[in-house]
């Protein structure tokens, strides 16, 4: 990554952190799920959509939170 690319990222990062963040609380988690729901409405199943990879990243962040904070329902 070049210095110029890093500067570009630094300049846009503050606005991106409003929608792309690691959820640390239940409120963060719920906010991220709501954002992902909106993305799903926009992107759908179009893997070529410019926001498809953002949707994938958010899904991973949500899954990680769920794995660490939401107990699995046992099969009884």
What does this structure look like?
- It comes from Candidatus Chloroploca mongolica.
- This is Transcriptional regulator.
- The protein has 76 residues and is mainly α.
- It has one domain.
- Helix content is 66%, strand content 0%.
- The chain contains three helices and no strands.
- The protein has helices spanning 3-16, 26-43, 52-69.
- The longest helix has 18 residues, at 26-43.
- It is globular, with a radius of gyration of 15 Å.
- The mean pLDDT is 92.
Which structural category fits the helices and strands? mainly alpha
Strand content: under 5%
The N- to C-terminal Cα distance equals: 51 Å
Give the H and E element order: HHH
Count of individual helical segments: 3
Mean of all residue-level pLDDT scores: 92
The total tally of domains equals 1
Q: What is the alpha-carbon Rg in Å?
A: 15 Å
Count of DSSP strands: 0
3D shape: globular
Give the % helix.
Answer: 55-70%
Please mark out the parts with pLDDT under 50 across 5 or more consecutive residues, or reply none: none
Largest sheet: none
Protein name: Transcriptional regulator
Which terms summarize this structure?
single chain, 76 residues, mainly alpha
């Amino acid at each position: 990554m070049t210095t110029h690319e890093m500067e570009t990222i630094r300049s846009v990062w503050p606005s991106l952190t409003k929608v792309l963040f690691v959820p640390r609380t239940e409120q963060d988690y719920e906010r991220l799920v709501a954002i992902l729901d909106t993305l799903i409405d926009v992107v759908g199943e179009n893997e070529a959509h410019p926001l498809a990879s953002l949707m994938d990243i958010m899904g991973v962040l949500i899954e990680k939170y769920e794995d660490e904070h939401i107990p699995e329902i046992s099969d009884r």
